[in-house]
Amino acid sequence: MCGIAGYVGAGLPPEAAAPHLRAMADAVAHRGPDDAGIYVGNGVGLAHRRLAVVGLSDGQQPMANAGGTLHITYNGEIFNHIELRRDLESRGCRFRTGSDTEVILHLYERMGTDCVSLLNGDFAFAIWDEPRRRLMLARDRMGVRPLYHTWHEGRFHFASEVKALLTVPGVAARIDPLALDQIFTLWAPIPPRTIFAGIAELPPAHVMTVEDGTVRQHAYWALDFSDSAAARSEDEHAEEARALLEDATRIRLRADVEVGAYLSGGLDSSIVSAMAARMAPAGLRTFAIGFSDSAFDEGDFQKIMVDALGTQHHQITSGPHDIAAVFADVVRHAEQPILRTGPAPLYRLSQLVRSEGIKAVLSGEGADEVFAGYDIFKEARIRRFCARQPGSRFRPHLFRRIYPYLSALQRQTPQYLGAFFGVGADQPDDPLFSHRPRFRATAGAKLFFSEPLRERLAGYDAADEMASLLPGAFARWHPLHQAQYLETRFLLPGYILSSQGDRMAMAHGIETRFPFLDHRLVELAARIPADMKLKGLREKHLLRQATADLLPARIGTRPKQPYRAPESSAFTGAAASRLTAVLSDVALAETGLFNPQTTGRLVQKSRKGALTGFRDNAAFVGILSTQLWHRQFAASKQGQTAALAG
Q1: How much helix, strand and coil, in percent to the nearest 5, is found in the chain?
Q2: H or E segment at 83?
């Protein structure tokens, strides 16, 4: 895994090109601490920071083809590179290295931009095609690896992280108000928009070309549930899913370094670790987060799996003060405001992994999206039940079953439960029906926006924009598949794989690999009938059936426990006072994004430990992270302020 950067366009003197590229590369050095390289051509420059995982001795980048006409800088792994290499060699290709990077170059020589269709991996790369004077950018299907770009002074710049683009003289760090509204509603901006005005993100599963100053962009893959009514038995689907997951795990163990695994004690990471342990002849090292607060801790379940698999296990314990201690660094690496503290323990976990000499780890992330594991899917099903019988006194009781870890809900009346989950507030034919309660609860944080920010937004609705981007076939899909699509297309790449995934791992030079996000498995799961994935209120039913023999019974039958961490309670006491200074009236007035009076009351409630609900906690963390974002990005650029982008 690596960090990449570069530019195309005239006007940069040759003597200035190398320092320009090195500055960009240095800004993402944490992504690639093992090596660095640059390529300077006529009106083009590529930069690379390397994390050596495959082809340790001969995978240096930027890499050229044999004729010197193509150059690539590449972040990621192509997990099927061995099979692709064999096929290319059978067609007469000769390889000079053992790296997967050269495989991409040979494929591009034969197929051009269509080469991405054959790649099974997590990647973001740029290829400079000298004969065509064309720059190609590409990003993996699921959005595991990031890629950003901007135009400045007639040159097109790109990079793995925005930090590299901000080294370009004159590129400003100004906030995009619409992106902030999207974060405070949907948890993440909708690509290509980012929180940085004038800086765009290449969406997942997209290819972009820059040629003669013209930019073209297209999607080469899309998640599609149209064929989900295939007439196959549950056992047949389970058998195929098991085989694909095993193969996805097998190829993600390919590396010239040791690969470890995250083991939370939940179903998904336990399945991946169990499969990997069978495939790792030298044994498997596993890593986990523990919490000092038993409400968040899964240590007992981790121990069950460690004892069952015999892994060499490492754990780091997080308490509230640990979260506060790293939160500013978390925001700096996330590069955008966040509404939850969950990334902070994962940041510390990747630090532990690195200290143990591991560069790559497997993760169970993605199973909830692909096999319908989230509580929001069950919640939507119950809300639809209630909509069909609005007078039922019994159906609201079902909400208690899906949130057993929320003790306050267990004591509430059916009337309260129905009102709390918005029963009757939404129409079942609303394309965003499954997510409306979450969006409403999250958007409550926007009550703290300042009046100038409200005026700039002028009634903009982030959820309406999301709805406008749905594919034409969306309305014909099963309601569960609609909910899965929303989660997989928007939240997964924008928050789970970004703020909580790639950024926290790569902050310490750790590559995370996701067997459940192998596109073959994703496509198969999209064809599996909805009632085989969510059977009644049993989440991930088919996945449990397919892997039951791998796990101890207490793990295989365990209900979903979402990953959570202490929220506003992490920022109380003297230890956090320096961090929360960004919430003072003076600091709030300086940024101009939040109302000092209403925000001040929220901060006081937090200091008294009186913030208990999701809405207030999300608002507090969101405001704090936005203020920290401003201090670390907008205010850090000489002479810049947080003036709203026009």
Answers
A1: 50, 15, 35
A2: helix 81-90
Q: Are 175 and 642 in contact (CB under 8 A)?
A: yes
Contact in structure between 525 and 481 (CB atoms under 8 Å): no
Question: From the CB of residue 634, how many other CB atoms can be counted at a distance below 10 Å?
Answer: 19
- Which of 260, 349, 350, 352 lies closest to 309 in space, CA to CA? 260
Question: If you search the block for the tokens 């995934």, which residue do you land on?
Answer: 501
With cut-offs at 50, 70 and 90, classify the pLDDT of residue 640: very low
Indicate the pairing of strand 360-362 with strand 259-262. parallel
Domains of the chain: 2-171 (3.60.20.10), 234-365+500-556 (3.40.50.620), 375-445+457-488 (no CATH), 568-634 (no CATH)
The catalytic position among 2, 93, 115, 386 is: 2
Beta carbons of 60 and 50 less than 8 angstroms apart: yes
Per-residue model confidence as pLDDT tens digits over 170-224: 999 999 999 999 999 999 999 999 999 999 999 999 999 999 989 999 999 999 9
* Closest among 179, 189, 161, 157 to 170, alpha carbons compared: 157
- CA 437, 442, 447: angle at the middle one, nearest 5? 120
CA diameter of the chain: 76
- Helix 267-279 and helix 234-251, axial crossing angle in degrees, nearest 10: 60
Peptide bond into 191 cis (omega under 30): no
How far is residue 149's CA from residue 105's CA, in Å, rounded to a whole number? 22
**pLDDT by residue (tens digit) across 427-477?**
999 999 999 999 999 999 999 999 999 999 999 999 999 999 999 999 999
Q: Which residues share a beta bridge with 179?
A: none
Q: How many helices (H) and strands (E) does the chain have?
A: 27, 17
Is 2 a known active-site residue? Answer: yes
Q: Is the pTM of this model over 0.85?
A: yes
Q: What are phi and psi of 35, to 5 degrees?
A: -165, 165
